[in-house]
Amino acid sequence: MSSLAAASILGLENKKRISANLRREFGVSTAMTRQTDITMHFTNETPLGARRAPLSHACNPKALLLFALLLCSWTALGSDVTNQPPRNNHGFSYFHDEVRDVPWSIHVLKIERARSDLELHSSMGRGTALGMALVSAQAKGLSAGLGKPLAAINGDFYHSNANYPGDPQGLQIVDGELVSAPNPTHVCVWIDAQGNPHRTNVTSQFKITWPDGTTTPFGLDEDRPSDAAVLYTAAVGQSTHTSGGLELILERTADGPWLPLRVGQNYSARVRGLRTDGDSPLTPGVMILSLGPKLSARAPKVAAGAVLQLSTATTPDLSGAKTAIGGGPTLVRGGSAMQWSGFQPRHPRTAIGWNKDYFFLVEVDGRQRSLSVGMTFPELATYMIKLGCEEAMNLDGGGSATMWVLGNVMNSPSEGHERPAANALVLVQKPKPQK
Q1: What's the CA angle centered on 190, arms 350 and 188, to 5 degrees?
Q2: Mean pLDDT of 367-387
Q3: What is the DSSP letter of 260?
Q4: Which residues touch 320 (CB under 8 Å, ≥6 apart)?
Q5: What is the DSSP letter of 403?
Q6: CA 141 to CA 7: how far, in whole Å?
Q7: Which residues pair with 351 in a beta bridge?
Q8: Angle at 117 between CA 115 and CA 119, to 5 degrees
Q9: pLDDT tens for each residue of 138-151
Q10: Nearest CA to 180 among 343, 312, 376?
Q11: What are 391's strand-pairing partners?
């Protein structure tokens, strides 16, 4: 079966699941959900970003109300979008935009930033550890303590390494826990302690200070080169998956912060023991500092009981950040599209953007000639601006491009089915505070 045929079948299956989900979430009848299709079909004469009217509304008043509730009847997609009042009492809305001339099939989730009960969190493929998993599975597997998952998109690009599946190429912070180091050549999005988003390149200043005062930079939860140091936490799994070199088993000293690892912190760690055969087990409360064979030959000599200082500083300072995810390139900066030169290919795309009032999660289907051919970076940047974004960043795309909303994959993946991703951005509704 071709990918296009499989994608079409997947779309039909999605609509069946969506109908069932709407009945469960909103208590509407089967007949109503059939009339209130989750997709919107538009005339193909309308310019990109302008308002498009559905071809027909063969619905009763209750169905129309549900239609407006979930899909957000935007009256404009221009610069005045930030002045619009909230469209529903859920704080978020899903919108399917079709531009048939190209063609494009675009899935948009619009989230009110003022809603204190809604948060964006990053997820890991294996829940509490790095790995590969479907976006839908990552959303459903998010810690229940964070709240109810409402929607999700795929996240960062990742390294293909059998020993470290799902190792993100850039920074990742999961509910305040630092699980992947920043890559200075990759842009990332991070959300500070006050809930404000930022888009920038982040440079690692991670370092070990040895007892003699010398320092060594280190990576985090990743493949260890022979001439470098990597700090491993339980986020990488049950062991370091290394071979040879020297590994220092680190435990907490009497005072100061410890696990889970946080960005922008200084840690005091005591050497519990040393191993030279690699693949050290990661037990609760322990971190492993692994030195490659070349580095271990010239590193300062330490014994059990020695105390090391670890720093997870970054530039800029991300202290207190609860969520971060890498990607790139930057699409929109200060309301203006970035510039690209040379040939620009069209592919399935995923992106995040925002202005002072809203977040926008966007997925563009691609590689499906009769449905959607995908976008270039300039086209995606233009679309994000038309949504009203002041800032926007591209995420992993291609076969990974996925949008999940209320239990359903909304888009048509280019391979005909969901593909595992290293991480995801998940919109959650926080638990109500107990009285």
Answers
A1: 55
A2: 98
A3: S
A4: 192, 193, 264
A5: E
A6: 25
A7: 362, 394
A8: 85
A9: 999 999 999 999 99
A10: 312
A11: 354
Residue 249 tokens, joined: 């088993």
Residues with Cβ within 8 Å of 338's Cβ and at least 6 positions away in sequence, in order, are 329, 330, 331, 332, 377, 381
- How many C-beta neighbours within 10 Å does residue 306 have? 15
Q: Which amino acid is at 223?
A: D
Cα–Cα distance measured from residue 153 to residue 135, given in angstroms and rounded to the nearest whole number: 7
Q: How far apart are CA 180 and CA 158, in angstroms?
A: 11
Q: Are 240 and 247 in contact (CB under 8 A)?
A: yes
CB 177 within 8 A of CB 262: yes
Contacts of 192 (CB under 8 A, 6+ apart): 198, 318, 320, 321, 322
Whole-number Å distance between alpha carbons of 280 and 258: 19
Instruction: Give the per-residue pLDDT at 434.
Output: 77
pLDDT over 70 for what percent of the chain?
Answer: 80
3-class DSSP state of 46: coil
Extract the tokens encoding 180.
């992947």
Other C-beta atoms closer than 10 Å to the C-beta of 204 total 19
Report the distance separating Cα 419 and Cα 137, nearest Å.
11
Calculate the CA dihedral of residues 144, 96, 111, 350 and round it to 10 degrees: 70
Distance CA 95, CA 99 (A): 13
Residue type, 31: A
Q: What per-residue string of b and e applies to 139-151 under the rule 16 or more CB within 10 Å gives b? A: bebbeeebbebbb
Give the per-residue pLDDT at 233.
98
Helix/strand/coil for 135: helix
Q: In what order do the strands lie in the sheet with 358-364?
A: 92-99, 104-112, 358-364, 349-354, 391-394, 330-333, 336-337
Give the whole-angstrom CA distance, residue 228 versus residue 357.
43
Dihedral in degrees, nearest 10, Cα atoms 141, 147, 149, 152: -90
Mind listing the pLDDT tens digit for each residue in 62-99? 334 334 444 443 433 333 344 344 456 899 999 999 99
Half-sphere exposure of 333 (CA within 13 A, CB side): 10
Q: Using the structure block, give the residue that is written with the tokens 């509730």.
A: 69
As a whole number of angstroms, the distance between CA 333 and CA 336 comes to: 5
Look at residue 7 and tell me whether its pLDDT is greater than 70. no
**Start-end of H helices in 141-253:** none
Is pLDDT above 60 for 375? yes
How far is Cα 218 from Cα 146, in angstroms, rounded to an integer? 30
